[in-house]
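I am still getting used to backbone structure tokens and would like to learn alongside you. Please make up or recall a protein chain and show it to me in full. Would you write everything just below, so we can both look at the same thing?
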Amino acid sequence: MTSRPPTSWPRVLAAPGLVRIRRALLVVTSGGVLLVQGCDRPAPAVPGDSARAGVNGAPPVSATEPTEGSGWDEAAGAYLVLPTVDGGMMAGSLLRPEAIDATVGDTTGVATMIGDGRLDLFARTGLVHTARLSVESAAAVEAGCTAWPVARLAVDAGVTMAPWTAAFAAGRVTAMPLDSIEGLPARDSAALAANLTRLASRLPDDTSATFRGLPFVVLRAWRSRDGADAFVVAVLARRVNQEDNPVEERVVLVVDTPSREVTSWRVGWHERASGNEEELVVAEPLLAFRVSGANDVRLLFGRDDGVALGAAVLARRDGAWRVLWESAIAGCS
């Protein structure tokens, strides 16, 4: 059995030259926020980590829940489909934006909701397929667990499916292509990685004595192509390689990069988590997009360890990134 993660995602308040993190619980030890761990093999605590972090030693800023609605933009459609671990490319999970933890598996009215079932499938690089969607109830789950409805996909005969990271009702969103650091020339890739590690090392909530001073390594990074609106989203890590107790800290960054001049780059959002390196789960960037009729940039993140699945959307408005919407969590309590 696996513990499900809480539904809180880091939220950003903008201030000149300063990133402040709002969290209902900011717990960066192995038992807290952002970590999914197996009940039969608890992850060890990381000594010296702070359970709650403020900025530059200030008290933490408490988060407040949205007072009206879920925060989901209805223009993006009535649902979202995510591929699931070991689900293959022809199936996924149907996330209903307004669902709460207790109703994630509800399929009431789903036929009306999906309409003609036309679905746009996206990778980080952009639109990859159009498919037809059908939905069925999830298979029986054990007591104390929940699961999103199963999304089945169908494509025309002869079409070869490519990997995809997220899907929306057809025509609802436009992808903003993201280029992987792996596709850059070696010199550019090295320079980008160096700048990202420098920014990560300067984040104000580094309260862990365990990892302080250790170098970051860029695990994955993608950059957008949009001039003054450009940004980079990346996952970095630093590790303590103890043979009997390997622990790791991961940081997910969204960095605004309005020009080639690195001094203009600013971290607009980040989350930090630490624990046993084999069990650590952090937000994974799935898609950058714009909703039809809107100009603001959005980033879709997901967390999926094969048991628990949830998602969130960040939006950049007036120069600041913030969590616009976060889903309920399907998994085991």
About this structure: Residues 75-171 form one domain. The chain has two domains: 11-66+178-326, 75-171.
